[in-house]
Write a structure and sequence with these properties.
single chain, about 190 residues, alpha+beta, 8-stranded mixed sheet, 8 strands, about 30% strand
Length: about 190
């Protein structure tokens, strides 16, 4: 499985955000130790991709109320072998929102650079053991004239005001993602 595009992307992210080197190194270590890291079957964890989606105005952001995890989260999921994780994030955004028109927002002046990276624990569920998601997160802007549609993976999908995200979110990693988006999008 070819992981080099993701190693390269993480190196660019690490260079742009040196204060986040520890989490980048953690994801890189998983990738170096597990050639199957891009598959959901990899344990102790695997790479995922997600999208923090804002509307065309940049004032609202989209969340999904995830069925399995029973909480509001950014859209995203498994990369299913895709080393170009931006492609996986776009695929997940389309599948989970029902919308198809997105623009990738440049981060640190670079198109296609992640907005954030995170490692978080997914609790055991049924036969699936507890494991980690090594999440690479992108900022997407939805093109105007689209309305989200809830997928089978969610209880709901809804827009929220970016200015009031602290009243909606309680997950620190998602709050951090939203704060980064708010700073990047501020005039």
């Amino acid at each position: 499985m070819h992981r080099q595009p993701l190693f390269d992307l993480l190196a660019r992210y690490r260079s742009a955000f040196p204060a986040e080197a520890a989490v980048v190194d953690r994801i890189s270590a998983l990738m170096a130790a597990h050639t199957d890291c891009l598959l959901r079957s990899c344990r102790p964890g695997h790479v995922t991709a997600s999208a923090f989606i804002v509307d065309a105005t940049g004032r609202r952001f989209l969340l999904t109320h995830h069925k399995k995890l029973d909480r509001w989260l950014q859209l995203g999921g498994h990369v299913d072998g895709e080393a170009h994780v931006l492609h996986a994030a776009l695929r997940e955004a389309r599948e989970e929102s029902g919308m198809h028109g997105f623009d990738v927002v440049p981060v640190d002046g670079v198109a296609g650079l992640p907005l954030d990276v995170d490692v978080h624990t997914i609790p055991a569920r049924g036969a699936e053991p507890e494991h980690e998601h090594h999440d690479v997160r992108f900022l997407l802007r939805a093109r105007p004239g689209q309305e989200p549609v809830c997928s089978d993976e969610s209880h709901a999908v809804a827009w929220f005001e970016l200015a009031t995200m602290e009243s909606v979110l309680d997950e620190e990693s998602v709050l951090r993602l939203g704060r980064k988006a708010r700073v990047l999008l501020s005039p």
